[in-house]
Amino acid sequence: MKKKTNHLKKLLLVGGARPNFMKIAPIIHAIKKRISSIHKKTSFDYKIIHTGQHYDYEMSKVFFEELEIPEPDYFLNAGSGSHAQQTARIMIKFETVCLKEKPDLVIVVGDVNSTLACSLTAKKLAIKIAHIEAGLRSRDKSMPEEINRIITDAISDFLFVTEKSAIDNLIREGCDSNKIFFVGNVMIDTLLYQLNKLEQQNITSSSKYKGVDYAVVTLHRPSNVDDKKKFKQILESLTVIAKDMTILFPVHPRTMQNIKIFGFLEYINSNNIELLSPLPYNEFLLLVKNAQLVLTDSGGIQEETTVLGIPCFTIRKNTERPVTLQLGTNKLVGTNKAAIIKAYKEYKKNSITGKIPELWDGKTADRILAILLKK
């Protein structure tokens, strides 16, 4: 019997925002390891695409260095704009890359506009698509990310899922079960890799806040920070928590802009809430690792806090990551001031503990690559 040959000769890895590259980095590490261990004749090529959906050159440069990945081969400079404008620009520019590179496979991650735009472009060029973090559902179609997830999954050839609820979601939507692979979580690959690196360097905490009790806050979703009344309710709940501990608030550019527009700057600074500039990943990781509590509307931070064992309040009405609620340290607290404060009072009475979900072990990228190379 002839040995099955690998038809994967060239792949494109697509990212559009910083969290995307945290998910791509383990795949790149796995590819490098694979290439170095096999005969050159059976090697394959890969290119990194940065759509430029969110882009700050200096921050991104540090980010690539921290993650130990090359700077992108292509920067599409998509920029901001409406969802339609941004998606259209990415599609047009990515099509040019695909026609030039002629890849066998496009790997997309997460749920940003770049994920959808590059998937649609690849599919119409008859290029196979692998979606990492497939099947996550919030059941809230007012979220642009939910639309991106549903459409990307519907047209993908490989659906790599982080938790078993995602398999149920995909089957319910009519996806072929042969395309679905439960592999674990690449975000956790990056988390564990970076933690190990910091431990080897004997860096265990952010020196500035060593010995300080603090909570970490991240807010970036338009539904939270674009609505003045809702944003004020969230901030007022933070001032209550700030009576017990310092609030460290690395501020997303969109969030900072609205803080200024709404006149919240003085209000925040007078209430033991310290605004920080966006942080490099390792610095942010150390901050979260040693926090008493994290309050966020981010998806990835719900997962990271679960693995780190840090109590997390998700300031949303829903989450596409239910395993962090069922097994992890995450609690869905909504966006109402009274509800957030109630959750905080309960947290003070009863500690929040959790377990690490299945296959969140730092080996997800290896499993993904093994599957792709068998096909």
UniProtKB/TrEMBL annotation:
It comes from the Bacteria. It holds the Pfam family Epimerase_2. One of its GO terms (molecular function) is isomerase activity. The keyword Isomerase applies. Residues 38-372 form the UDP-N-acetylglucosamine 2-epimerase domain. Keywords: Isomerase. Belongs to the UDP-N-acetylglucosamine 2-epimerase family. This is UDP-N-acetylglucosamine 2-epimerase.
